[in-house]
Every structure is written in C-alpha cells, then in structure tokens.
Amino acid sequence: MAKDLTPAQLREEIRAGKWKAPTTGVAPGYVQANLVMLPQDAAFYFLLFCVRNPKPCPILDVLEPGQVEPKIAKDADLRTDLPKYRIFEQGKLKDEVEDVRNVFHDEMVSFLLGCSFSFEAALVAAGVPVRNLEEDKNVSMYITSRDCQPAGPFSAPLVVTMRPMKPAEAVRAIQVTTRFHLTHGAPVHMGSPEEIGIKDLDRPDFGDPVTIRSGEIPVFWACGVTSQLAATSASLPLVVTHAPGHMFVSDLRDEHLTLL
Amino acid sequence: MAKDLTPAQLREEIRAGKWKAPTTGVAPGYVQANLVMLPQDAAFYFLLFCVRNPKPCPILDVLEPGQVEPKIAKDADLRTDLPKYRIFEQGKLKDEVEDVRNVFHDEMVSFLLGCSFSFEAALVAAGVPVRNLEEDKNVSMYITSRDCQPAGPFSAPLVVTMRPMKPAEAVRAIQVTTRFHLTHGAPVHMGSPEEIGIKDLDRPDFGDPVTIRSGEIPVFWACGVTSQLAATSASLPLVVTHAPGHMFVSDLRDEHLTLL
Hints:
four-stranded antiparallel beta sheet; PSTPO5379-like; 11 strands; PSTPO5379-like fold; 2 domains; seven-stranded antiparallel beta sheet; alpha+beta; homodimer
C-alpha cells in the first residue's frame, strides 16, 4: 500500500513521477512540512517573520543558499521531492509544476515549516475527534482579522485551521497540542468566530467546511498557510511553495517535535 | 532600594550613568537578556545560528537594521541602556564601554537572547537549591566538547552553566525549566562532566566555582555565552555584546516566557 511507504521511499516515488497526489495520511507518524523558497536577499526578513510569528510559522529547517538537502531528510532534494509546487513572480501565482530544478538557483533559500498533520494523529490517539479526518475532507482554513508581526517587506493576516469539538475535548486538545510547539502548538482561539473576524464557518477561505454538531465549539489553531501569504506579500522576483496538501515528507517522527 | 526599581526606572538610571553594576538580582521577575549587535550582512546567518541552536540561543527579540527600541522594552535604547558593553573587531575584544552610540550604525542588527536568570527564580520558588545564589557567586560556566550546529561563518562549542543538586531535586528542576523554553529550557546533560568534555568542575571557563556537596550531581543547562562565542567566531568588522553579568533588563515578566 502506498500509505505504508517510508518517507525515503515516498520521496523516491515522487521524484520518479510515480506519486503526484496530496500527501495527507501517507507515511503516518512522520513530520510533513510546508515549503517556502525565496531569494537570499529577502531571507533575513523572511526568517525574522517566522521567528516573530512562531505559532503559524514554526521553523523545522532552513537551508543555506543553494542547498537542497535538508538536515531532516537524508538524501532528499527539495527541488524534486514534493508532488506539486507553486511558482509566484512579484507575488502573483504563475504556475503549478511537479519539479522546480529549472527555476531554483544558487541564491535561493529554502524554509521548511511545521504543519498540523503532526498533531492530528496525537489528537486522534487522545480520543479527541478530528472532524476533517472523520469526513475525509481537507481541514477548514480561515483568514482572520488578526495581523501577524511584520518583518521588513513581509506581512500577513493570521490564517487558522478549525476543528469542532465539545468543551471537555477542547481542554484535552489544548493539553495535547501544547506539546507540539513546533507544529503550531496550543490553539490561538476558541469559541466565537466573529472575535477573530470569521463571518461564516461554513465558508472557509481554504479547504472544506466540516459538520459542527450541537454542543461543539470551534477550536482554532494557527496555520502554515500564513507563511505562504507572507512570502507572497512582498514583490519578489521568485517565490516557490508547495501546492496545498502536497507537503514535504521528512524523516523526523512527530514525537521528535514535542516539547515534553 | 536599587533592587526595587522597575525595568524602566533601572534603564533610566543606567542611561544617566548612575547605575554601572551587574544586573544580577535587580528588577526581580523581569526577563533579562543577552545582547548581540552585528552588521546586517551577517544577520541572516547569525539568526540562522540562533534558530538552529535554540537551547543556548533562545530568541527573545530581533530588531530591524538601525533600530534600537526593542518590542519587549518600551522607550528603551539598546545603545545606552545596558551598564557595560564589549566591542569586538575581527572577532577580537577591543574595548569595554558604557555606551555604544558612537559605534552603532544604521546597518547594525540587534539580537536579544534569553538568559538563565529567568528560571533561577522559578527553581528557588520550587524549592530547588541554586548554589550560586546561595553563595552569592556568578554561576559556573564551562566550554563543552559539543559543537553547535554552524550557520554560514558562525560556529561555536556549546557553553553550559552548572548547578549542583540531589537527584530528586534534579527531577524537579527538569520539570520546572522545561516550562522556560525561551530561557534555555530543560538541562542538556546531568552527571558525568567528562562526557561533555569538562575536565574539572572546580575550574569553570567563566564565572565562579561553587560548592558541590556529597550526594549531589552536576546538572548542566545551555548558556547564552554560546551566542557571544558564535558572534565573535566570524571575522566581522564590528560586533557589540553586553559585558558578562551586565544584561539588558526588559519589560517582559519571566512568566511570559513559559510554555505551560
């Protein structure tokens, strides 16, 4: 089964053009990451943006200019080992491709940022419902009215994911995700969506809506999509990111990212 | 009493040249920070060094080039508000001064990094002995045989502080300091000093030796001095740091830095 591949095997399949699908649920237990590549000139300020906004942009690995093999994935190549990439010029989406060897160059810096896939498995293991997994949907994501701390030319509103659950389950979810400080950590908000500028939970800005049952409250976590909005907020000649859901699968285990 | 000053009052005293002493024990409960200032050209790699080595170099604040007022201290000026600075040229110590307005320039970036003063108060509150406080000495610091992850031109051995305690107290100390992940967090080692390249606990590389009683084990935490060794490992035209013990006192409370 494809889902039983090791991260190294999956990356090899992707590189060979045999795997083009989203990475949700594959290589379970291994850390998946958001990818942002941008020119060295802007790398200090983008790193500063991530440092200033650690909940949406938790840094897993930053590579030196021109390097493509991250420390967290042996023999990997970030130019070929994700199933789908997005290419932005001057902040505008120009293309979706399966390989970026022809655009990546020696003065590009790659950032790998944590993703909430890591803590969803821990929530399930703790008996907390994860509705998007139950309903086999992409998690609901919303652009909030809260601004991140800017850095140089980079700014973005905070983007959040939402998972509905009962209050007692939310208490447990807070405990569980607090351990995962490198994959968004504890929630940033719960309850009233209006308070963070979300008008309609049934109409997420990204991903799919999920069922919210009677007696459940929405619980909101900072989301890695924030980093993509930030990276494309500056007018840079070239930014490369993963395509939504098509993440980089590392050799790190989810448990390696826990604080406790 | 001088020790009862608020952080803002203390910074004003320092700026006026009325306070020239170390900051140990002043403005208790407020976060004190290590300072590193270096040229913008090298700022990406130094920030990357800190990100890759979060235990010795936990980032509290990084200022944009030329800026001197950190977010964590209202109306402060990093050029004047520390009691003593060290000036390095090409990695060599050139001077100790009380004000760096004449050397700081618009292309310098300032980094404020966490300091173990924050967790020492929490250890005392938890009933864990802090021998250097009991004996009114500077904490014992040692250069270990462990290398930090390098970044660009920056490299350094890991420097640690040591506090002796009974094994059951060490368990409690691990729990308490785990919460303080922005001020060095949990210990990096305990027990055998030889294992991390320390030959003689009675001869620290920095600070003072402290009494180790029968039945106590040495417990080692990553130390902010690591950041100074890293900053001066590259041949930069100018690096400014605080002088040992003469820290920057921020408006943040120690509890703001805890994870849990």
